[in-house]
Design goal:
13 strands, 6 helices, Glutaredoxin, nine-stranded mixed sheet, globular, alpha+beta
């Protein structure tokens, strides 16, 4: 019992501190570690083939396709982030309240996961009339954005608000009574490589769904959950490679 408890403690430490060690260790054992929850409605089921056997697979909500304009004035298709784990937020450059704290949290993520080629950041402006590509580029340069990891988006207001509410399940709207004239959520949203919203569990045992970008504690939890998600994909890759090697030797 002590040995099992110690091994579980080592695995927990690995996933929180060394995600690469986490998935390498798991490939040598048969432990089923916790996966992040899928957020949003279940849209149905499908049958897929796994190892030659039919398996029922749940179809989860995913971010709808969209096309907007990035900080360089280039068209940005949502498919550009296909195969990427990323965190999204909604802000505006002249925001007098929560946006600076949110973008500082995004900068933390940029720094923490800078070496991960399959991780990125995505920020949508809720004030696209003011936040042109030029304004977004200057703002990003000023706060220290690494444009290889982080994209800012502008475009038609209705398109941005639609993807906020229908895709990411966060608020984005004009509100003359709100500071700066816009009401938007302070949340950071974690998206997996298939476009699904994912999250860990809160202290009450419920899926968190989103993370408060103004809270250091919740951003710390987001960092841990990003590690879990990245490790999940690396573990799947290791298992696939192992199966290919086994088939090749037969």
């Amino acid at each position: 019992m002590k040995s099992k408890a110690l091994r579980q403690a080592v695995i927990l430490l690995a996933i929180l501190v060394f995600p690469s060690a986490f998935y390498i260790a798991l490939t040598t054992g048969r432990h089923n570690f916790v996966h992040l929850s899928y957020i949003g409605p279940r849209l149905g089921v499908d049958t897929i083939e796994v190892d030659g056997r039919p398996v029922v697979d749940t179809i989860y909500h995913s971010i709808p396709d969209f096309s907007l304009i990035d900080q360089d004035g280039e068209e940005f298709e949502s498919s550009a982030y296909g195969g990427m784990v990323y965190v999204a937020d909604f802000f505006f450059t002249s925001c007098p309240t929560i946006c600076p704290a949110m973008q500082q949290s995004m900068l933390r993520l940029q720094s923490r996961f800078e070496e991960y080629d399959d991780f990125a950041l995505l920020s949508f402006s809720v004030d696209p009339e003011h936040d042109t590509s030029e304004v977004l580029k200057a703002y990003g340069d000023d706060i220290g954005v690494n444009w290889d990891k982080w994209t800012f988006l502008t475009g038609p207001r209705d398109s941005i608000y639609d993807v906020a509410t229908r895709g990411y399940f966060v608020n984005a709207m004009v509100d003359d009574l709100a500071p700066g004239g816009f009401l938007h959520s302070e949340y950071l949203v974690l998206i997996d490589k298939d476009g699904h919203i994912r999250s860990g569990i809160d202290k009450r045992g419920n899926p968190r769904a989103v993370y408060d970008g103004t809270s250091d504690a919740e951003v710390n939890e987001l960092i841990d959950d990003i590690k879990v998600l990245l490790a999940e994909y690396r573990l799947a890759t290791k298992r696939a490679e192992k199966k290919r090697m086994e088939h090749g030797n037969n």
